[in-house]
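Deliverable D4.2, example record:
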Amino acid sequence: MEMAEVGGSRAWIEVSLAAIRANLRLLGHRAGDLPSIAVVKADAYGHGLERVCQALARDAAMFGVAAVSEAAVVQQTLGKGAPPILLLGAVLAEDLPTVVRHGWHLSLSTKEELALVAAESARQRSQASVHLVVDTGMGRIGALESDFLGLCRAATEQKNIRVCGLASHLPSADEDEAFTQDQLERINALMREALQEFEFNPGIHIQNSAGICRFPSAGAQWVRPGLAMYGCSPDPSFQEGLFPALTLKARVRLVRELPMGHGISYGRTFITKRPTRVATVGIGYGDGYRHSLSGQSAKVLIGGQKCPILGRVTMDQTMVDVTDLPTMTSAGEEVVLLGRQGEEEIGLWDIARKVGTIPWEILTGFTKRLPRIYDEET
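Output generated by the structure prediction step:
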């Protein structure tokens, strides 16, 4: 969708595909010019799965998704020339025929999963591509460290299985340096032992975005960038050099003069203390702009200046104080709720901290009611 197509849209998201590509290259370079498993689950973190995959088709070594439905979208979008697609979580037995038929890569944690995949591959007279995962502290998927070599042995004994990767996950790379350093030492020791004992040559992937930023030399062959690829570092101290790819915008729908002592929004949690010029902006929690921003001194950008939200965010509209702006605000004027306008910026971490959550949840919470507008064709 081109910018001209926004027309009278009340609110929308602008996505810079060029920024996502630049971030992907930067992150791979930081880790020693390693190829990337680009994580595009959850509609590419709210940026739009189809367009992001098209933009990264020549740069990503592989795409990481969470669901079979996401894998199908990537496959349909890119066709036979698509990079390999890796399902990052466990897959139900009922989905295995589809996964094996399409050649999508599987993440395996147990011998029971392995047996099901091997049986389905044999039934289809094919060979399944798998990544064997070891749980070194995340507690989500993966074999326990004591069971990992047994899983590797079982996989190498199956003629219908091709071990393409060995993987683990860093749960605290942005929070606990000592734990993560110990974790990496344990992972690398296990990986060395597996590579020495078994006749296979899989790629190793460990580092998520935080791992790439804080532990770039982790001894892997691939990196798995997620949040940072979209321009937000999990650790704000590593933000420099990344380009935020998403800007959230809306339009002023109405401007009114309210007297002192007038309530604003549900519950009348805000009462004007002076005559106040109020802009009603066409966005609300029905679009994913969080209700929990209410009463948190949140601001938006109008005319390149920060303007405070008044009262509670409603489903479709949000009220903003524009009394102190040097120029008169009018209906149709552009509002930036996330991103840069002029010299001012409202970042993902700014919003996330105000509502007590994380940038991942903010990005993936924007609804389909917001059209995505892209900076270029791919």
